[in-house]
Design goal:
Distance between the termini: 38 Å
Order of helices and strands: EEEEHE
Number of helices: 1
Shape: elongated
Radius of gyration: 15 Å
Largest sheet: 3 strands, antiparallel
Length: 78
């Protein structure tokens, strides 16, 4: 989950934006962004670039709201 703050023409905060199963996040009025496989810095840069293409001078600040564990079961033998 991400906390997202918009600063510029639009000043708004969104708390706990979830990552969908398809690896995307959706920000109200700005659209859907594919972020699967990216680290936090890459997500921030990507969304800033795409949002600035839509709204000149708009800045986006992104922080992680929540981390979660993923259990992985490895089965096999040597």
């Amino acid at each position: 989950m991400f906390d997202i703050t918009l600063v510029g023409q639009i000043n708004e905060s969104f708390s706990e934006i979830p990552v969908a199963k398809d690896g995307s996040i959706t920000i109200s009025n700005l659209g859907k962004f594919q972020i699967a496989g990216l680290n936090l810095s890459e997500v921030s840069n990507l969304i800033n670039k795409l949002v600035q293409n839509k709204i000149v001078g708009q800045e986006v600040f992104i922080t992680l709201a929540e981390l979660r564990d993923i259990n992985i079961l490895v089965v096999g033998g040597g």
